[in-house]
Design a protein that fits this description.
Strand order of the largest sheet: 1-28-27-26
CATH class: Mainly Beta
Distance between the termini: 41 Å
CATH superfamily: Fucose-specific lectin
Strand content: over 45%
Number of strands: 28
Order of helices and strands: HEEEEEEEEEEEEEEEEEEEEEEEEEEEE
Number of domains: 1
Radius of gyration: 20 Å
Length: 349
């Protein structure tokens, strides 16, 4: 009888651990650097690292409960921390996770949404050890094509913006292309580039290092990354800095090709569109964006975590921590995940 009682208590504890009420924080597990993706069916996945292992927590009810945590794989000496860590993107039928080891190899893991099995696939970078900074981003379209951008030091040991794509569901990658190299020898070497998709348009945002300034620039392709246009500087200000901000910003692109970007300069968070004046929305760093049609910006201000929908005037306080990410779920709510004290925290607003 005592054994049955203990088992019942354990089941109740586990169930409460993986579910939470709206507006209440909960802890998924120990880990760092959470990333969130949502697929066409509305399935929410949080991918994060813990030491050299990569995990995925899955919710099929708009982020209310996470009853399934899978071990995706292991990458020896994996980069993890300060925007370095596993990256994730979902297409209609697949989810891909990238992770970089400290020697500079970009590893790929693929989830088949039908079989629910993870497999390890080919490396992204075709030059051994070309990505030692560990900073990259991946994106997907709904035709199961995936796209990647990262900081790459091939040829001259200086960081450049490198791009690759796949058209075979993430199994193999195209020949890598250097799509931007700063005339001042290097782009900012410790700021993560970001990539996103809207139909055939590929958009990449990165922090440059040009004439002593560390400003954000936008690269775009109208043909799924076959060619890229000249980069465009974002915002009307500049940041002369002989140090690394370690903060790359984020962007989204709507179905009508409206580009929205968010980034930090001198401890202030700005929102801007290409070729338009910038708008300060707060103070802080490590901002991210989601929902191209109704953009949401998430960032940290000291330990405080903030959320702002551009369609609303108010700024929501989420809690405390760092490296917050957010998505809009199928029920039109905002779901957040962040890092705090070595644990992955979650909340639905």
């Amino acid at each position: 009888m005592k054994t049955l009682l203990k088992t019942a208590i354990l089941i109740i504890f586990i169930a409460s651990f993986f579910s939470f009420a709206t507006h209440t924080d909960a802890i998924i597990a120990s880990g760092k650097q959470p990333q969130i993706t949502i697929d066409k069916a509305g399935v929410v996945r949080i991918v994060y690292g813990n030491d050299d292992k990569i995990y995925c927590a899955t919710s099929t009810d708009n982020g209310l409960t996470f009853s399934d945590i899978q071990t995706i794989g292991e990458v020896k000496d994996m980069h993890l921390g300060m925007s370095r860590g596993p990256q994730v993107a979902s297409s209609k039928n697949y989810t891909l996770v990238s992770a970089i080891d400290k020697k500079g190899s970009i590893h790929i893991f693929q989830l088949n949404h039908q079989s629910q099995e993870w497999t390890q696939e080919a490396l992204v970078n075709d030059w051994a050890g070309s990505a030692p900074e560990g900073l990259m981003s991946i994106a997907a379209d709904q035709d199961d094509n995936f796209y990647a951008v990262w900081l790459d030091i091939r040829n001259d040991k200086h960081n450049k913006i490198c791009f690759a794509k796949t058209t075979d569901k993430g199994i193999s990658w195209s020949k890598n292309s250097i799509v931007y190299q700063s005339p001042d020898s290097t782009v900012c070497p410790c700021c993560k580039p970001t990539i996103t998709l809207s139909k055939s348009k590929v958009s990449i945002m990165f922090r440059n290092w040009l004439n002593g300034s560390r400003d954000l620039y936008l690269l775009q392709s109208d043909n799924k990354g076959n060619t890229f246009n000249n980069p465009v500087k974002l915002g009307n200000g500049t940041w002369k800095l002989n140090a690394c901000p370690m903060d790359g910003g984020s962007l989204v692109v709507s179905d009508k090709n409206v580009v929205s970007t968010a980034w930090q300069r001198e401890g202030r968070i700005y929102y801007s569109k290409p070729n338009e004046p910038e708008n300060q929305i707060g103070t802080g760093r490590n901002c991210s964006m989601t929902d191209p049609e109704n953009p949401i910006i998430a960032w940290q201000d000291g330990k405080a975590l903030k959320i702002k929908e551009l369609s609303k005037s108010e700024i929501a306080d989420v809690g405390e921590g760092s490296f917050i990410k957010a998505i809009r779920t199928k029920d039109k709510k905002i779901f957040c995940a962040w890092e705090k004290d070595g644990k992955i925290n979650i909340k639905k607003l």
